[in-house]
């Protein structure tokens, strides 16, 4: 019976994903994304030359693109729903300067703090400010080649922010107590507020803000922080509680910013609930080992070894037709990302419940 229910659930999600996929009719979609490895489409490799090797990228691209997954990320599915190109990393000098549909400033390992450390959130915003200034300069000088964004494009673009996971994770990694980590959350939120205001001051009016996922359910954390502090689904309770408090503060920020910036549309998306429900109800989606990485080392229960990570000598990887939520112990598989995307696109987890393509139409 569970298998039948699971199959029905997957078919329903596939239908929903198909139905919500549309394209922007009123104007071409332009998206600027700021974040960490959850939405980095190759910035780490392009910016630092850091090797991200196969089997990363094996399921869709059939090669490594710098994404930390076997295939597409959530942001890729969101772009596909608009029938627009996948976002090129801002740092990629070989992208053919094809940034007509926006640019991705997200970089693996990024956080809100400390500031002025590549590639913190405020550095990403500074990169955007340079990008915008240079783009308009080229346009005004008639030096463009048809791939430039004009002032209207910047004003009507969608500004996505997906960051915070590393701030919380790094705080716990420094052996800070739970209360010490919680006390840092306002400073993290303040940096996100500063980023939003900086983008708003440059004409940005449409924001799409993802909260952070259930940190305590990542195989990496479960392997590195053995504890009895586990919830009924096997996740670290204190880590998830910290993520939840961060998300509560982020949601409050979005509401306050709506009141402060009257002409801005700010959509807050509850990624945490989507991902936690995916883990809690993993059997319904056909994932038999929700807390185990597909690519890593060490075998059950988590298949994660910090000395032998995915793609490094000695790693092991599951069969390509296997179903895993976690790809490498930190990042999600393409199969999981597709389900997360379908739920994001449903608007059921968005406040206010605007469709993802809202920025193209008003």
UniProtKB/TrEMBL annotation:
Alphabetical keyword list: Glycoprotein, Hydrolase, Signal
Cellular-component GO terms for this entry: chloroplast stroma
Record Pfam families: Lipase_GDSL (PF00657)
Gene Ontology molecular function terms on file: hydrolase activity, acting on ester bonds
InterPro entries: GDSL (IPR001087), SGNH_hydro_sf (IPR036514), SGNH_plant_lipase-like (IPR035669)
Domain of life per record: Eukaryota
Xref: CDD domains: SGNH_plant_lipase_like
Signal sequence region: 1-22
Family label: Belongs to the 'GDSL' lipolytic enzyme family.
Protein name stated in the entry: GDSL esterase/lipase At1g09390
Source species of the chain: Cucumis melo
């Amino acid at each position: 019976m569970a298998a039948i229910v699971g199959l029905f659930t997957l078919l329903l999600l596939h239908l929903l994903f198909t139905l919500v996929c549309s394209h922007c009719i009123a104007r071409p979609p332009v998206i600027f994304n700021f974040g960490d490895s959850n939405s980095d489409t190759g910035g780490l490799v392009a910016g630092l030359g850091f090797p991200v090797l196969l089997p990363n990228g094996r399921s869709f691209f059939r090669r490594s693109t710098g994404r930390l997954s076997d295939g597409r990320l959530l942001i890729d599915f969101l772009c596909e729903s608009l029938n627009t190109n996948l976002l090129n990393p801002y740092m990629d000098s070989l992208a053919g300067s094809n940034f007509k549909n926006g640019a991705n400033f997200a970089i693996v390992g990024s956080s809100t703090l400390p500031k002025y450390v590549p590639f913190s959130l405020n550095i990403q915003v500074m990169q955007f400010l340079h990008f915008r200034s240079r783009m308009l300069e080229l346009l005004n000088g008639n030096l463009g080649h048809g791939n430039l964004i004009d002032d209207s494009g910047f004003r009507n673009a969608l500004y996505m922010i997906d960051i915070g996971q590393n701030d919380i994770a790094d705080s716990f990694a420094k052996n800070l107590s739970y209360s010490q980590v919680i006390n840092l959350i306002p400073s993290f939120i303040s940096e996100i507020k500063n980023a939003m205001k900086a983008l708003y001051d440059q004409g940005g009016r449409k924001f799409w803000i993802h909260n952070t996922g259930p940190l305590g359910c990542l195989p990496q954390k479960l392997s590195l922080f053995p504890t009895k502090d586990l919830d009924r689904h096997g996740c670290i309770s204190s880590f998830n509680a910290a993520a939840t408090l961060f998300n509560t503060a982020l949601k409050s920020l979005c509401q306050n910013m709506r009141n402060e910036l009257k002409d801005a549309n700010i959509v807050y998306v509850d990624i945490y609930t989507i991902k936690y429900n995916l883990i809690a109800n993993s059997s319904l989606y056909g994932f038999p080992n929700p807390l185990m990485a597909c690519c890593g080392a060490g075998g059950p229960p988590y298949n994660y070894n910090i000395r032998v990570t995915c793609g490094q000598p000695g790693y092991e990887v599951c069969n390509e037709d296997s179903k895993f939520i976690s790809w490498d112990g930190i990042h999600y598989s393409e199969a999981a990302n597709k389900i997360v995307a379908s739920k994001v696109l449903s608007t059921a987890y968005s406040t206010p419940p605007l469709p993802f393509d809202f920025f193209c139409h008003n």
